[in-house]
Amino acid sequence: MKGEPAVIDHLNEALRHELTAVNQYWLHYRLLKNWGVHDLAEKWRAESIEEMRHADQLIERILFLEGFPNMQTLDALGIGKTVQEIMERDLQAELLARALYAKAAAACHAAQDFATRGLFETLIQDEEAHIDFLETELALIGKIGVELYTQRRLGKLDET
User: Fold this and answer.
1) Is 87 annotated as a binding-site member?
2) Is 66 annotated as a binding residue?
3) 158 within domain boundaries
4) Annotation-wise, does 50 bind a ligand?
5) pTM score, two decimals?
6) CA 99, 103, 106, 110: dihedral to nearest 10 degrees?
7) Structural domain for 58, as ranges
């Protein structure tokens, strides 16, 4: 099925964002694990894998619309150097994604591509869940301090 070029452009823009997020969140996972913050590390690992699934859905849709997925371009990674910075950088990425996907969903609606609009609406829901998590955790850091917060998120000892 031949898709509208503007819709395919939005899908590729979303793909670029998701592929960037995969790398950013994976590096944050490895940093957190290296610092011994195991509970958060596992959460970031899961988020990176979720972003990879999002990228796969976008690739599948681009190909269905007879477009070509651009996997060669990434945005700059926003890497944090502390637990709080990681959350702040990832929150920025999630807020950007939500805005990007809302704009894309509107463009898909205008192009009468309701299936692609539905994909973007599903992605928005996933991003909003992550935004809520990050905002909640950052608020908790604000209340109890980053040191106590980090201590509470260490998890079990990694013996490997």
Assistant:
1) no
2) no
3) no
4) yes
5) 0.92
6) 180
7) 5-152
Token couple for 142? 């604000």
> Is 60 within any annotated ligand binding site?
no
Number of domains forming the structure of the chain = 1
The Cα diameter of the chain in Å comes to: 54
Q: Is 155 left (phi over 0), alpha (psi -120 to 50) or beta?
A: left
61: domain CATH number is 1.20.1260.10
**76 SS3 class:** coil
Q: Is 127 annotated as a binding residue?
A: yes
31 domain-assigned: yes
Distance CA 151, CA 160 (A): 20
pLDDT tens profile 49-106? 999 999 999 999 999 999 999 999 999 999 999 999 999 999 999 999 999 999 999 9
Q: Is 94 annotated as a binding residue?
A: yes
Binding residue per annotation — 109?
A: no
CA distances in angstroms from 61 to 8, 26, 111, 145, 148, listed in the order given = 9, 24, 15, 43, 44
Q: Is 147 annotated as a binding residue?
A: no
Residue 129 lies in a domain: yes
